[in-house]
């Protein structure tokens, strides 16, 4: 039976191959499609990305170590009917030794221009699935606390005592995807 996570709750993963599915249902009638983008940020003990390629999003779908794979962009939230719209597959056995934390964030594409925020998005969640059995392990539903935010850190995988754990973060920001890259990457960003 899957665990329904609350903000700040942590669980042991205990598996190597998992998928993190992100889903949402956009509010109707805002005049634009809702293009939510799921991303994964692989960071080291100094909380920075070791190399730019460890920032996984629709424009860079695979990490150099082969540990993460992004399913690709869903520009409308219509990839599924009630299921995951974007998925990030994770093989924890392949994660680069420098990486000890993976953040999962979702941002709204062109949120400022379209005047969109997470308060206009329904049923958003992140869930962890066992890739071997297809069974859902845990799910965190965002709720309605993010009325002005345009970027949300849904959760994070982190290594403690050589074991991977997951925390439902639920941290909201009024920022876009570029903010997260600039926050965790200290090298030159080529656009």
UniProtKB/TrEMBL annotation:
GO BP: response to tellurium ion
InterPro entries on file: Stress/Tellurium_Resist, TerD
Region listing for Disordered, in residue ranges: 66-87
Alphabetic keyword roster: Tellurium resistance
Residue stretches making up the TerD domain: 1-184
Designated name of the protein: TerD family protein
Gene source species: Mucilaginibacter mali
């Amino acid at each position: 039976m899957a665990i329904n996570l609350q903000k700040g709750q942590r669980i042991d993963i205990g598996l190597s191959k998992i998928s993190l599915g992100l889903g949402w249902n956009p509010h109707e009638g805002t005049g634009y499609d809702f293009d939510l983008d799921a991303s994964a940020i692989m960071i080291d003990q100094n909380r920075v990305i070791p190399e730019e390629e460890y920032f996984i999003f629709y424009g860079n779908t695979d990490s150099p170590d082969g540990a993460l794979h992004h399913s690709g962009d869903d520009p409308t939230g219509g990839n599924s009917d009630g299921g995951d719209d974007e998925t990030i597959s994770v093989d924890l056995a392949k994660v680069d030794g420098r990486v000890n934390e993976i953040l999962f964030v979702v941002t709204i594409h062109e949120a400022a221009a379209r005047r969109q925020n997470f308060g206009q998005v329904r049923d958003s969640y992140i869930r962890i699935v066992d890739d071997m059995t297809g069974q859902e392990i845990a799910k965190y539903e965002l709720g309605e606390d993010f009325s002005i935010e345009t970027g949300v850190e849904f959760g994070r995988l982190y290594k403690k005592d050589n074991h991977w754990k997951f925390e439902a973060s639920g941290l909201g920001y009024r920022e876009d995807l570029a903010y997260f890259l600039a926050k965790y990457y200290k090298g030159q960003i080529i656009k």
